[in-house]
């Protein structure tokens, strides 16, 4: 009877994990995308004493290893979907990392929000590709206010003819031109550099259309 109960709990846990993973993209790519995020951030110089803002932190798919790596209280996560952030908080508990004291916030809108500090690194993985032009402008203004003078903002984007090519969850899936992003960041007082495709940076999904061709941006204050 005890063995049966243990198996039942294991199955429920696996089902819950799969459901949670699917809230932030294909569940079968969850582990690869988690590993890519911490690997990339460390490769560009993230150190444990840095303060990092994870814009669109979701279920902490990428957040958990970052929280584990940073000093306690140095990770801040912002998410627009309350139920998704709740799953992230559960992921935090299951990972036993509550004592790392991550600061997690649910905001429907970023305008005029103030986290009370500036950050060495702002990270937005698979976020800008789902923002309308209006919300993108709001997000860039939010980043500008929270980015340290010598800080860096990293984000991946779809490059192509300006268009909306469908949706994911409640969000659009957007392609924009290089010129569009250059102007949008300039308007926000930010400059950008293209670092290359995610594939070139180590993101290999093995599936067309799952982000490998997206471009990574490195953004600084002007």
Task: Describe what this molecule looks like in 3D.
The protein is α/β, with parallel strands linked by helices and 222 residues long. It has one domain (2-221): 3-Layer(aba) Sandwich (Rossmann fold). 36% of the residues lie in helices and 25% in strands. It is built from 6 helices and 9 strands, in the order H-H-E-H-E-H-E-E-H-E-E-E-H-E-E. It has helices spanning 2-22, 30-43, 63-69, 82-94, 133-146, 178-187, and strands at residues 52-55, 75-79, 103-106, 119-124, 147-157, 163-168, 171-175, 190-197, 215-221. The strands form 2 sheets. The chain has a 7-stranded mixed beta sheet with strand order 3-2-1-4-5-9-8, sandwiched between helices. A two-stranded antiparallel sheet has the order 6-7. Helix 2 (30-43) packs parallel to helix 3 (63-69). The radius of gyration is 18 Å and the shape is globular. The protein starts with a helix and ends with a strand. Residues 1-15 and 20-24 have low confidence and may be disordered.
* Separation of the first and last Cα atoms: 65 Å
SSE series: HHEHEHEEHEEEHEE
Give the number of domains: 1
Percent helix among the residues?
25-40%
* Beta-strand segment tally: 9
Total helical elements? 6
CATH class category label: Alpha Beta
Low-pLDDT regions: 1-15, 20-24
As an assembly, this protein is single chain
Strand content: 25-35%
CATH fold description: Rossmann fold
Q: Could you say what the CATH architecture is?
A: 3-Layer(aba) Sandwich
Structural class: alpha/beta
Q: Report mean pLDDT, rounded to a whole number.
A: 87
